[in-house]
Amino acid sequence: MDHVEIGERLGKIRRRRGMSIDTAAGLAGISKAYWSMLENGKRRFERRGLLEDLAGALGCAVADLTGQPYLPGDQASAEALASLPPISVALFDATLDDVPNDIRVRPVGELARLASRANAASADSRYGLAGHALGDLLSELHVHAVTGDTNTRRAALRALTEACIVAIGAARTLGNNDLAVVAARRAQEAAQRLEDPALGGFAAMSASVVLGRMGARYRAQRVTSLALDAVSDADPSASDTAPAEAAGMLHLASAQLAAKDHDAATAETHLTAASELAARTGERSTLHYDFGPSNVQAWSLSLAVELGTGPERAEQITRMENFDAGLTSAERKAALHFDLARAYVQAEGARDGEAIRHLDLADRVAPLRIRHDPLAFEVVAELDARARRRAWELDSLKARLRVS
């Protein structure tokens, strides 16, 4: 899916809605000329916030514009996508009050270990492995959470929250945001029954990211605000830093939402709060969220790209020695290098070599993370359009991402 196809979808949906370009552009907060150029394939869709604004103006889903989920281009993608239907069945077939009575369950301790293992695979962008038999795991954990004794229920709820976080990451990355929202709500519900604000904070943070990707920014902000209230007094110097880590991740999610709304001041306020917490927690990775100074720095780049100041922030980050060393998961390292590529593309051709290098590295570190992101196609297409000569690195990226 390239910018021309997205532009065609944009125009088709606008016309079916019976909307003029003037009206649609006004609702999206952009000029009529800019909307027209987007429809006609003369501008690319390189910011998540832009795609969300356009979808919001037309009253459609972002996926209606991007065409997600994409057909699998390789075996790893096919295996990952095949894991989503059983996850969906498990989450719709059981609740935390009512479960099927014909499910055979393994011991809750074994299921908890499997949930932890799946989360580790998800953090490394191995979504096929993470999602393998995840539907069965979710179903069995629901049974324990409903029918077990007090200790068993608590263990099941904790493992269920983690398993749902795995489902959120896989579904969101592979373009099924509706399923990701269902998984996020179940994770929050399980954490709430445990009365664990830290666990609830991590679940809320993931929910906020998905809701933001769907363009539901009001609800995303409400989710983060309520969860932040529950961990507002977290002590980052305590022996258990999980509540402070959750608070930090919620501040980062709030900053991202503000950046998409072009509210640089609010974004900076939340980024500063997250940075202050990270300075005291140090590098942590509860539930593989990788909260700490390195991840705050990575998120600062993502915010800068949304605010149009990507090249300057990218320069500051890449001047630091081993700037990605503090990120322990492949997913987070790939996200940082992908945002570096997006940032350097904003330099209008002056830094395209570096953009190609960082995008290539991101794809090699976590290919599933990159090859299912519509913005990756936009970045490659922009780099290709500006290229003055053939380069094998760029040709390789075009082949891997199937950009014609």
Structure description:
It is built from 23 helices and no strands. With about 400 residues, the chain is mainly alpha-helical. The protein has 3 domains: about 1-65, Orthogonal Bundle (434 Repressor (Amino-terminal Domain)); about 70-195, no CATH class; about 310-404, no CATH class. Helix 12 (about 175-195) runs antiparallel to helix 13. The model has no long low-confidence stretch (mean pLDDT about 90).
Brief characterization of the structure:
With 404 residues, the protein is mainly α. The chain has helices spanning 3-16, 21-28, 32-39, 48-58, 62-66, 75-82, 84-93, 108-123, 127-131, 134-147, 150-173, 177-194, 197-213, 217-230, 242-260, 264-281, 293-307, 310-318, 330-345, 352-365, 367-371, 374-386, 392-401.
Annotate the secondary structure layout.
Blueprint: H1 3-16, H2 21-28, H3 32-39, H4 48-58, H5 62-66, H6 75-82, H7 84-93, H8 108-123, H9 127-131, H10 134-147, H11 150-173, H12 177-194, H13 197-213, H14 217-230, H15 242-260, H16 264-281, H17 293-307, H18 310-318, H19 330-345, H20 352-365, H21 367-371, H22 374-386, H23 392-401
